[in-house]
Specification:
Elements lengths: L3 E9 L2 E13 L3 E5 L4 H4 L1 H11 L10 E8 L11 H11 L10 E3 L2 E2 L5 E2 L4 H11 L3 E5 L3 H4 L6 E5 L2 H8 L13 H10 L15 H13 L3 E4 L6 H8 L8 H13 L14 E2 L7 H5 E2 L4 E2 L1 H4 L4 E5 L6 H5 L2 H6 L1 E6 L2 E6 L3 E6 L18 H8 L4 H5 L3 E4 L5 H5 L7 H18 L13 H7 L4 H14 L3 H17 L8 H9 L14
Length: 522
């Protein structure tokens, strides 16, 4: 019988492309060979496939005196992972005339167990999106992957539990209903009806009104934020409360994020991730784990935080190479990871929220406790975060210790849900402003957009001119002030002209008085 062909899919970065699984079966001494740059996982699939075929009631390759050659094309792309088990098994059954079906418009994915059942795999969503884009009519996947694939409309999603069940379906002996496509708006409505409470409400934080205000501005405009102050002042709680005031993602954003989590095998109960990610890596995390990489490059923490928050507690304790590696993604919203196996690009448009003490003992600048650190140790500690990295952090706010009266009093102020509505309205203004540009929030604006959308009145212009001149601000620092002011104006309901009070508040987040604990570093 001439060679046969079935289709599967592979992933490079976060994008997928079709793979042709060609199987040739000829008489001769038994041989089962897989070519086409397979990795160890794919090479070892021969034994899994043989057992699954035999336990599903078919004749396994070892039971036939035939030479079986499997080619995964294109052959110059490395193949990895167990998702090729199912298409290789089907190609073998088709080549040996044990099955007859037309697979020209179908894609098959799945890892086979020894008993013929199908296990859940990673990367189903991007391959499903590719199938739709390339004109495939149907994708066959393990039953446990149906949820994440069903958010893609226009492709029949067939979930199967075993190889035997799939064989019956392909031969027309049994019927399998295609999964119903998920409507994203309805999905969000159902989530909201459950009244899911956030882990931490911003109203639980007593005092720290300045920090809360900075939190609202950062959430509204997607600005990076640095919280610094003595231990126990509430920096970590403020960062955690940020997750509760961020709006749900749009469908486009949710698909971007869910693709990344699908590739990493992190899709759990919900088929699509609608809540913005909040990643909190420990300061011992390696640079590769943060930025992404490995023999087969995978997304790191900065990509898992895409469209959400990357919280780096105890920021100066992170290795310097980890902090410096954030420069490119903070500026460009993406990172290119180059390895011997190739270069891939991962999206990394996240809000960086850092928390740090002003010195090793934590009490430098504190009125209540004396600092025990030397001037040299304070300088060395603060300089662990380089000037270029600090320049990329939009808002830098001091979080001092609160008084006993505020700590012991009743919690006051609006709840996360109320503030979240204010943030959502500000973001809607920005989405209308940037419609068709690819930008989502003010923090993403480039020089052209800043010139167009950050118009200031005469008083405000003189104010920012004096600030730039007297403090010798960089071009980036000047642009950061305008972006922050644009967000403050949006929160203030000013749709066009940025006024002096907006600029003044923005400057306060960038330029510190001489007695500020981080004045020398900033």
């Amino acid at each position: 019988m001439p060679s046969v062909r079935v289709f599967s899919g592979a992933i490079i970065g976060i994008d997928a492309f079709p793979i042709e699984v060609e199987v040739d079966s000829t008489p001769g001494l038994h041989l089962f060979s897989i070519v086409g740059l397979p990795d160890k996982t794919v090479e070892e699939s021969k034994d899994r496939i043989a057992s699954a075929i035999r336990n599903s009631g078919f004749i396994a390759p070892s039971q036939k005196n035939r030479k079986i050659i499997v080619n995964l094309a294109p052959a110059d792309i490395k193949k990895e992972g167990p998702a090729y088990d199912l298409p290789i098994a089907l190609g073998y059954l088709l080549a040996t005339a044990q099955l007859k079906f037309d697979g020209k418009d179908k894609i098959f994915l799945g890892e086979l167990s020894l008993n013929g059942s199908l296990r859940k795999i990673s990367g189903v969503l991007p391959i499903t999106l590719m199938a739709k884009r390339r004109g495939f009519k149907e994708i066959v996947i393990p039953q446990d992957n149906v949820g994440e694939a069903s958010i893609v409309k226009g492709v029949r999603i067939i979930g199967v539990k075993t190889l035997g069940e799939l064989a019956g379906y392909l031969q027309g002996k049994i019927q399998i209903e295609a999964a119903k496509a998920i409507d994203y708006d309805q999905f969000l409505k159902e989530i909201q009806e459950k009244n899911e409470d956030e882990d931490f409400d911003i109203s639980h934080i007593k005092g720290q009104e300045n920090a809360k205000r900075a939190l609202v501005i950062a959430a509204s405009g997607g600005h990076n934020l640095l919280l610094y102050g003595p231990p126990g002042s509430g920096k970590t709680l403020l960062a955690k409360a940020l997750a509760g005031i961020l709006p749900r993602m749009s469908q486009e954003e949710a698909l971007e994020v869910t693709k990344i989590y699908s590739i990493c095998g992190l899709i759990n109960d919900q088929p699509i991730i609608s809540k913005r990610p909040f990643r909190n890596p420990h300061h011992t995390t390696s640079a590769v784990a943060v930025t992404g990489g490995g023999t087969w490059p995978k997304p790191g923490e900065i990509s898992l935080a895409h469209r959400g928050v990357l919280f780096m507690d105890e920021l100066p304790e992170f290795p310097r190479n980890v902090i410096e590696a954030l420069r490119q993604p903070l500026e460009g919203g993406e990172i290119v990871v180059s390895r011997a196996s190739g270069s891939v690009k991962f999206p990394s448009r996240f809000m960086l929220v850092g928390a740090m003490n002003p010195c090793p003992c934590g009490n430098y600048g504190d009125d209540a406790k004396a600092c025990t650190c030397t001037a040299q140790s304070i300088y060395k500690y603060q300089r662990k975060i380089s000037g270029p990295v600090l320049d990329r952090i939009d808002i830098q706010i001091n979080v001092p210790r609160e008084t006993y009266e505020k700590m012991s009093g009743e919690a006051e102020g609006p709840k996360s849900e109320e503030i979240g509505q204010i943030v959502a309205e500000a973001r809607q203004v920005q989405q209308k402003r940037f419609a068709g540009t690819g930008f989502q929030v003010n923090a993403e604006m480039g020089p052209r957009e800043i010139k167009k959308y950050c118009q200031v009145d005469e008083v405000a212009e003189n104010l920012i001119k004096n600030a730039v001149t007297s403090h010798n601000l960089s071009v980036r620092g000047y642009h950061k002030i305008l972006k922050i002011a644009r967000t403050i104006a949006d929160l203030d309901g000013n749709k066009e002209i940025i006024q002096a009070n907006h600029i003044a508040e923005a400057i306060a987040y960038r330029i510190k008085p001489e007695n500020d604990p981080l004045a020398a570093a900033i």
